[in-house]
Amino acid sequence: MEILRLARPFEDVYFEDPEDNPDTPRFRVYFDDASIEAMLAKVSNAIDRAQSLNRKLDQAQTDEQRAEITQTMVHLEKRVIVTFIGTDGYDRLLSWMGDGEPIDPAKHTSVLGEVMASFLMLLGRKATNEQLRRCGLYFSQESAQTKAFLQEQRKQQPKRGGQFSEAQGGKSGKKRRK
User: From which residue to which does any coiled coil extend (predicted)?
Assistant: First the structure.
C-alpha cells in the first residue's frame, strides 16, 4: 500500500487556535507556483529592510526621526502582511488584535513584525529552492542597480571641502604606491 503525501495548494492561517476561540479569523493563503512567485517578488527584501529600519530607529536622535522611521516600518509590515492575506485581512487582523476596535499599527510594530516574520517563514517553507534562488538573484540584481544608482548620484553632487583638499596637497594628500 502506498500513501501519497500530497500538499494542498493553500494553507488556512489562524492567529489563535480556533478550538480555543471559534471567532478567530481564518485566512486562506495560496501557495501554488504563481502565488509563491508573486509573493516572493513583493517581499524579497522585507527582512533586510526591517533590520535596516531597526538600526536607524536605534540611532534616531529626535522624536520626529523616530516617528518617521516607525511610519516606514508600519508601511513595510503592512505591505508584507497584505501580500499574504489582502487588505481586508489586514484590517481584520488590526480589529482582532484590538478586540473589535482596530489598533494603531504604529503603536504595535513589534507584534506586527512578528506576524510579518511568521508569514515570511511560512513562505520560506513553501517555496522551492529554485524559487528562492531566483528571488535571491532578483534581489541581488536590484541591489546592484540601486548601489550603482547611488554611486552615480554621489558623483554628481558638488564636492565639499575643496580648500582642505588643496591644503593636503592634492585630492587625498596620500602618496600612491606604484
Answer: 36-70
What is the extent of the structural domain holding 32? Answer: 10-157
Residue 171 lies in a domain: no
Say how many C-beta atoms besides its own lie within 10 A of residue 147's C-beta. Answer: 10
SS3 55: helix
Amino acid at residue number 53? L
| pLDDT tens per residue across span 109-129 | 999 999 998 898 888 888 877
Length of the chain: 178
Partners of 27 in beta bridges:
13
Specify if 167 maps to a domain.
no
Quote helix, strand, coil % in the chain, to nearest 5: 65, 5, 30
**Count of structural domains within the chain:** 1
Is residue 86 within 8 Å of residue 156, measured between CB atoms? Answer: no
Parallel, antiparallel or unpaired: strands 10-14 and 26-30:
antiparallel
